[in-house]
Design a protein that fits this description.
Largest sheet: 10 strands, antiparallel
CATH architecture of the largest domain: Orthogonal Bundle
Number of strands: 12
Helix content: 40-55%
Radius of gyration: 31 Å
Distance between the termini: 43 Å
Oligomer: single chain
Strand content: 15-25%
Shape: elongated
Number of domains: 2
CATH topology of the largest domain: Helix Hairpins
């Protein structure tokens, strides 16, 4: 209900939102204390729901990688199987064209010279052995391909189950985070957004930059900023790459051994601005277990991005908000299971994690 009331009137001012959420003006100390208590309770629920979601999502991500690897093996085995079958088919066709020759009988009745007969029998023996090997190899490759395909099918079923569990956990976490967020409106100011607006208002920008910003905002939305590629993608944060996508030894206990994203770091990285990688709608903004303070954006066409470990108070957008590429959405931190300030950037395609570095570079995004 609160979410619908907020999204129906995005033009409302902060005081109006406060009255919607609390039913009272913020001047009452007693109601402020009540809001404080509600805030603490809803925040705790949101943190617990976020932790459950992360655990379910980690399980789905690992299963997605296992399923992909099994399917790759199954496809390779199927290709080998088809090659072997083709060889056997050619052999059978040749034998049929030759009238189904019995090599031993043919040699016994056609050769009169003992030496020629022995030589021919040796050739026939090797041919028979080769034929048997071809048949055995084809049968073995067929069994291997079927076994791997069965394993891939089982893995896909398990992946579907885990993805459903992750989606259910996400929806619960989203609901809890939204409730906590609406109550926290009383106590939190959107410092990242205000700072960005202040810079725009006070900095003496060159006309060329102003024209550029006007152009990308006209195309991608009012919040668009920075360098946006022709396909509408932008760098999510400055910094060097400290950890890539893929399997790795867990840096901390409780961290998944599959690194589902790309880590960007740098000197004095705490507070570094984080930007939306593309236009989209914020579907989550709140705690997410080991990922700490977390933002998730749905960009459509099956693409979803995630921004993890944001600093306390570093989430600058709300669930349901529309963002533009390059728009400042938060600030880097080290919340959750983290060894230091950095951005853990996640990219999913149709629910499965993919390598953000390769994808963004293909879109023309330059890292550094």
């Amino acid at each position: 209900m609160l979410r619908h009331r907020l999204l129906e009137h995005p033009e409302r001012t902060l005081p109006e939102l406060r009255r919607i959420l609390t039913g009272h003006t913020p001047s009452s100390n007693r109601k402020r204390n009540q809001t404080q208590g509600d805030s603490e309770r809803t925040q705790q629920v949101a943190e617990e729901a976020g932790a459950i979601w992360l655990s379910a999502q980690d399980a789905a991500d690992e299963q997605a990688q296992i399923t992909t690897e099994l399917q790759t093996q199954a496809d390779a085995a199927a290709a080998e199987m088809e090659t072997a079958r083709a060889q056997v088919a050619r052999l059978v066709a040749w034998q049929q064209r030759s009238g189904g020759l019995d090599f031993t009988a043919t040699l016994l009745f056609s050769s009169q010279d003992p030496d020629e007969l022995l030589t021919a029998l040796g050739i026939a023996s090797r041919l028979a052995e080769t034929n048997a090997q071809l048949y055995d190899s084809a049968a073995q490759l067929t069994n291997t391909a079927r076994s791997l395909q069965d394993q891939a099918a089982v893995a896909q079923t398990e992946l579907d189950r885990r993805q459903e569990a992750a989606l259910a956990a996400f929806e619960q976490a989203q609901t809890a985070a939204l409730e906590a967020e609406t109550i926290l409106v009383e106590q939190q100011e959107n410092e990242a957004r205000l700072a960005a607006q202040l810079v725009v208002l006070t900095e003496n920008r060159r006309a060329t930059e102003a024209d550029y910003n006007k152009g990308i905002q006209a195309r991608w939305g009012a919040g668009a900023a920075g360098i946006v590629t022709a396909s509408g993608w932008a760098l999510p944060a400055r910094g060097y790459i400290s950890s890539r996508f893929g399997w790795r030894p867990p840096p901390l206990p409780g961290v998944s051994k599959f690194h589902s994203g790309l880590d960007l770091s740098g000197a004095n990285y705490c507070g570094t601005p984080i930007y939306a990688a593309a236009a989209g709608r914020v579907t989550y903004a709140g705690p997410n277990g080991g990922l700490g303070n977390y933002i998730q954006i749905d960009h459509g066409n099956g693409y979803v991005t995630g921004y993890a470990h944001l600093q306390p108070g570093g989430i600058g957008v709300r669930i349901g908000e529309t963002v533009a590429p390059g728009q400042n959405i938060g600030r880097a931190g080290t919340t959750g299971l983290s060894t230091g300030c950095h951005l853990h950037f996640i990219l999913r395609e149709n629910g499965n994690p993919i390598d953000p570095l390769a994808f963004l570079q293909n879109q023309g995004v330059v890292f550094g």
